[in-house]
Amino acid sequence: MSTLHEWVDQLERALLAVDPAATRRLMAQASVTIPALQVLDAIIVPALERIGRYWERGEAALSQVYMSGRIIESLSSTLLPTASRPHPQHTTLAIAVLDDFHFLGKNLVLSILHTGGFDLIDLGHVDVDGLVERVRNGGIEVLLISTLMLPSALRVREVRDKLMEAGQHVKIVVGGAPFRFDPELWREVGADGCGQNATEALAIVRSLVKTRVNGEAEA
Amino acid sequence: MSAIRMTAMQRVAAALALREPDRVPCILPVTMHGARELGLSIESYYAKAENVVEGQLRMFAKYRHDALPAIFYGALEMEAWGSETIFRDDGPPNSGPPIVTKIEDIKKLSPPSVEGAPRLQEALKTIGLLKQNVGDTAPIVGMVISPFSVPVMQLGFGPYFDILHERPDLFDHLMAVNGEFCVAWANAQLAAGASLIVYADPVSSPTIIPRETYLRTGFQVAGRVIPRIKGGVLTHFASANCLSILDDVAQTGTTAVGVSALEDLAAVKAACRGKLTVVGNLNAIAMRNWTPSQAVAAVRTAIAQAGPGGGYMLSDNHGEIPWQVPEEILLVIADAVRTWGSYPLDWVEEEQP
To answer: N or C: which end of chain B has fewer CB within 10 A?
Structure first.
């Protein structure tokens, strides 16, 4: 019988090979002996996290990260239907693409956060004012913003300032190419965190949600 | 070599021929900054060829760099496919929503005519007017987006990855259609007076697809298209990596490669030696916050890593200097190339540990 570590190794190989059939077979085998929630938390999420780290180090390609998320999402709804959300979620999360039409980064983050057990409101493509309005009206507490172009990344500062003016103390997490090329940019624009890849975004969201829940409990 | 002062054209030609020119050529892709020079919005600037010509000539004089980028913006050629362009005041125009919303519609695509596309004609007019002004003293640089990379704008990244992996029939048709347009558009720019065509191909980068996928897709496409372009070609990965595929890239018929700031320029130069001219790799995003001394240090480092032996041109890593980069920094870069880039680069050897 395979250990959890071996399951992760095998899943990682199948995903990097963009092999949906092998992935389905593996997950079916794992689900026979391992509870669905554990398959998600102890096999699928670690495999996706590893692939994200490989991309960060230049050892995997973006297409492999994207196709891995897509394969897992397609299996999650059929193969793991009993896996309810592992994290009771008390925080309203949203994700948006600011100012351009490049959705890949946002979709990668959405995919891994869904797999990791989080529900997010997908705001799609928005401009600054539209985003501020959606955050105010939606009671959003953690806002993830994806950008591809430098001017869009710089505009996060406007989002932050307008939300502050409106009394909205929203946690902002940013990601995208400009933040990879300038490691200080996320601080410059007033973000609370920056994910260099989708799996980092998952770790940051986990931490923010935990902090919020603990903060509320203490209050 | 340094005693003979070359024209910008001779300098770039020597670097593209993998030789040492009188000094390292400097190419600053200040594609939109002419709008600021002329006091125009970016949209108004690009509306008329005469604006772009005036802007590029002024910047050529100001920065004393070695090429005139007759490149409007990446989304320009998508206008020929029927796409909307979204202008902004502080950066390059973006391509609007993808033109293909149902992937089966790929089968209906046919290459747009360069002659019938008014905006492409405006760009060609720009090249012609620049050529009238500079003749053979300085190279005019045109651009195409590779047939393999333009689907990111035609379809969006996600749907493109989907057909890349799952629909070889649609992928093959798309590459055939895009290839025909790309060759026609590149050759029209060369016929108008461009000396060098940038073949923007970030999707071929190992940052985006694994090498094995590249070898059966982007590599094959480039190998079919680039030899049909009747002039020098610079394959640019637009900030994405290329080191691990350089031996493959060299077989596509290209002359030069544009390199990411995230890659080891010395390693890239070693891999390209005798095969490809290296172009890059100043960090265009970080550049906007550089102090003058940081700018000089970045130029010195790049020249030390890639300058010796020739076959190198200093430039940014993306092929487009951001609007937010201060003029002062560009002037410092231009001066630093003159100070540190004159061949022979004895100082590089003297500073070796």
So the answer is: C
- Residue A123 near residue A95, CB atoms below 8 Å: yes
Q: Which domain holds residue A75?
A: 4-79
Between vectors from CA B134 to CA B132 and to CA B140, what angle results, nearest 5°? 95
Cα radius of gyration rounded to whole Å, chain A = 18
**Are both A183 and A105 inside the same structural domain?**
yes
* Residue A218: predicted pLDDT: 43
Listed residues A21, A56, A79: the one ending a domain = A79
Residue contact B157–A154, C-beta within 8 A:
no
Q: What is the mean pLDDT of residues B69-82?
A: 94
- Within an 8 Å CB–CB cutoff, is residue B239 touching chain A? yes
* Inter-chain residue contact B157 with A66, CB threshold 8 Å: yes
Cβ contact A156:A191 at 8 Å: yes
The partner residue sitting opposite A61, judged by closest CB among B98, B152, B208, is B208
Asked if B268 reaches chain A (Cβ–Cβ under 8 Å), the answer is: no
Query: Is residue A107 situated within a structural domain?
Result: yes
Q: State yes or no: pLDDT of B83 exceeds 60.
A: yes
CB contact under 8 A, B161 and A181: no
Shared domain for A8 and A45, answered yes or no, is yes
- Tell me the C-alpha distance between A60 and A51, whole Å: 7
Report the C-alpha gap between A15 and B248 in whole angstroms.
Answer: 25
Tell me whether residues A101 and B94 touch, CB distance under 8 A.
Answer: yes
Nearest chain B alpha carbon to A151? B91
Q: What pLDDT does residue A81 have?
A: 52
CATH number, domain of A53, equals 1.10.1240.10
Q: Kindly report the nearest CA distance between residue A186 and chain B, in angstroms.
A: 12
Residues A9-40 have pLDDT tens digits of 999 999 999 999 999 999 989 988 888 878 88
B210–A60 C-beta distance less than 8 A: yes
Task: Report in angstroms the alpha-carbon separations of A111 from A89, A106, A159, A198.
Answer: 17, 9, 24, 9
> Which of A103, A148, A182, A185 has the most B C-beta neighbours within 10 Å, making it the best mutation to test the interface with B?
A182
Is the model more confident about A74 or about B22? Answer: B22
Segment B244-254, tens digit of pLDDT: 999 999 999 99
Nearest CA in chain B to A60: B210
Q: Which two tokens stand for residue B273?
A: 């030696």
* B40-54 mean pLDDT: 97
User: Are residue A107 and residue A159 in the same domain, yes or no?
Assistant: yes
- Is residue A14 a part of any domain in this protein? yes
Contact A61 B91 (CB under 8 A): no
Three-class SS of residue A174? strand
- Residues B340-351 have a mean pLDDT of 93
